[in-house]
Write a structure and sequence with these properties.
There is one protein chain. This protein has 12 helices and 10 strands. By secondary structure, it is α+β, with helices and mostly antiparallel strands. It has a domain of 204 residues. Strand 2 and strand 3 form a beta hairpin. Helix 6 runs antiparallel to helix 9. The longest helix is centred in the first third of the chain and has 28 residues. It starts with a helix and ends with a strand. About 18% of the residues have low confidence.
Length: 439
């Protein structure tokens, strides 16, 4: 059978087993056998004529091959290497043009005067006119007498600026004697443009600058703590990759210090929609230790996240922190958001009842309360059926850094204003700005 020739033993056995078990298979096999018998009984048809002679004659005929036409080579009108020479000439022209352009830009940006110190003398580069060559004039060094003319001072070497933080320092913010004041501007130079409705970044040349992840080290914590204790109003710039995520982590860190966040409507909407915006946080009667502890917790969380992250090393959520005093412009913008003049000690709506001193240990506060209670000066006991007065809330108000339509009458802002207490010694006003990366 055909199946015996085409199938191996295993498949043939499987086919036979299927035929024995299935009636449909046996019926199909019977029909195939009948068709095979009919095909064998058919007569073989012979061709009407013998074609063998015609085929042999056709094979004997010669094969005609196509003619090969040789195309003559046409000489190129351009010499060999012309393309390479053209490309080299273009590159040379571009290089010369770039050199002339950079030279012209350098001449335009070159300062009108410069100082050099050599052998105890000042050499000032002066120019008598726009068409004359500069002259070198040697002047004796006079440390007590200021130089005459527009002479540019040497700018101090500064730490690398985080992202877009390279801005000239403001003389009003240079409060420390250790900081070199910024260079004087030329009278003909145009002043830097400043966003009037945006909290300006801290100039890095007058601020304490450190990576946030380094706050796990005791030396960095002490340096930041000393800076925060140096003034009663501090401005911190926290640079991060995503401000919304950073705000959530910062909220958890401050919550461990019993400090709650209250968000204004614009900040709440931006956070809910995931908009890319900068956030500001403001609070009063905040101990420097609370801020350092919160940032230390943020740094610990950053290192844990980096240790658990797989793949190529990626920068953390928080990048750098800069600290300096709150400027008058900061107070002006805060007044737009909160409708309170926070630059004055008695500005705004403040409660006069004594609050809890966060710097005082709990045992000492308890002992003082007992003594005042025995003297009849303590907190009055609640009447039956009435609850005791709650401790004042410790709040940080959260708003966007550039509020377009501030709403000082919002319930969240009113809640923060109601929580303002008399400022306690050893605490500070703190303004924290979360700034997102521009990259």
């Amino acid at each position: 059978m055909l199946s015996e020739r085409l199938l191996d033993a295993r498949r043939r056995e499987a086919v036979l087993s299927h035929v024995q078990k299935s009636p449909e298979a046996r019926e199909v096999l019977r029909q195939l056998q009948e068709d095979s018998n009919r095909l064998r009984q058919l007569s073989i048809l012979r061709p009407p004529q013998d074609l063998s002679q015609k085929i042999a004659q056709r094979l004997a005929e010669p094969v005609v091959l196509p003619l090969r036409v040789t195309v003559p080579k046409v000489a190129s009108p351009f010499p060999r290497g012309y393309g390479l020479a053209t490309a080299a000439a273009v590159l040379l022209a571009m290089g010369v043009g770039a050199w002339y352009y950079l030279t012209a830009v350098r001449e335009v940006n070159r300062p009108t005067a410069a100082e050099q110190e050599a052998d105890g003398n000042h050499f000032a580069v002066k120019s008598d006119g726009p068409g004359e060559a500069p002259k070198i004039a040697a002047n004796p060094k006079q440390p007590d007498q200021p130089a005459i003319g527009a002479v540019a001072e040497k700018e101090p070497r500064s730490a690398p600026a985080p992202w877009n933080l390279v801005r000239p320092a403001d003389d009003t913010l240079a409060k420390s004697s250790e900081v070199t004041p910024p260079s004087k501007r030329d009278e003909l130079a145009s002043p830097d443009r400043k966003k009037e409705d945006h909290f300006a970044p801290i100039p890095y040349r007058v601020a304490v600058f450190m990576p946030t992840r380094d706050l796990t080290q005791p030396t960095q914590q002490q340096e930041l703590l000393n800076k925060l204790r140096g003034a009663s109003a501090q401005h911190l710039d926290l640079y991060c990759r995503q401000t919304a995520t950073a705000l959530d982590r910062l909220q958890g860190a401050f919550k461990t210090q019993s400090i709650q966040f209250v968000m204004t409507p614009d900040a709440e909407n931006a956070h809910k929609l995931g908009l890319k915006t900068d956030y500001l946080l403001y609070g009063e009667n905040v101990a420097p230790e609370d801020v350092v502890t919160a940032l230390r917790q943020v740094a610990i969380d950053e290192r844990k996240a980096e240790a658990g992250r797989r793949g190529p090393k990626q920068p953390g959520q928080f990048q750098n922190v800069l600290v300096d005093g709150i400027s008058p412009d900061d107070y002006r913008l805060l007044k737009r958001v909160l409708d309170v003049d926070l630059s004055k000690p008695d500005g705004g709506q403040r409660n006069t009842r004594p609050g809890i001193d966060p710097l005082k240990p709990l045992a000492a506060r308890t002992a003082d309360e007992v003594v005042r209670s025995l003297k009849g000066q303590g907190t009055p006991r609640p009447e039956p059926g009435k609850s005791m007065t709650k401790a004042p809330e410790r709040l940080l108000v959260v708003s966007t850094c550039n509020p377009i339509h501030p709403n000082p009458d919002a319930a969240q802002v009113q809640r923060f204003r109601n929580s303002l207490q008399e400022r306690l010694p050893g605490t500070m006003q703190v303004l924290v700005v979360l700034r997102g990366s521009t990259k």
